[in-house]
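Example pasted here:
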Amino acid sequence: MQVILLERIEKLGQMGQTVSVKPGYARNYLLPKKKALRATKDNVTYFETQKAQLEATNLKRKGEAEQAAKKMDSVMVTLIRQASEIGQLYGSVRGKDIADALAEAGYTLDKGQVKLQEPIKTLGIHDARIVLHPEVSIIVRVNIAQSEEEAAVQREAGAKEVATTTAA
């Protein structure tokens, strides 16, 4: 199915491009979320007339996302979880858990904006990518520990590790 993208979509294309996608992806995700239009003659004409407005809206949203990224720069959230003696969590930390922790810290985002390669299943400091806008993303450090004291120790060790890596 041919669609016209109304915003940049990672691994698919830029705003205004006509791309071919599977019908289910278009029907279930792109069209309901207003991220694309079907590529008909009428919609192509409509897009051309609305292009300047869509680009202005996109720039405004990107600017807001960049401001939020500056505020969230070098944020570390701490999650207390139970784990085995070898550091395996009894369960896992998902994007929703990180989004909730960031909400408690005063940042507003939803679980869909937190991108993890895979669920976190061990204690320690991990990185999570937060997508604030299709063109703006940041890395947030997630400190997973069994207690507040252990979290403080890991935080200090992580800060020293970052300092030695940047000095090298």
About this structure: The longest helix spans residues 41-71. Helices lie at 23-30, 41-71, 95-104, 148-167.
